[in-house]
Amino acid sequence: MIATTITQKGQVTIPARIREKLNVKTGQKVVFEEHGNDVIVRAVADFLSLMGSLKSGRKYNKREADRAVGKYLAKQYRKKILREQS
To answer: Is 23 a member of any domain?
Structure first.
């Protein structure tokens, strides 16, 4: 168990050992999943690291990609809420 302090802004520092285990770097996103009284922190896949690995006639647009990821995560969250309500 590792303890950390919550700042006045509600922020915490993720301890180095946990960052290494999650393989997250500065500026990378994480998600918090609620499971009853527990919260799980997961690293969000860094889609930019995949850029160029697939060939397409369409040029990469970061804003469109962020919007698409946001829509996907919102859809998954809605499904989760509906499951929990049933």
So the answer is: yes
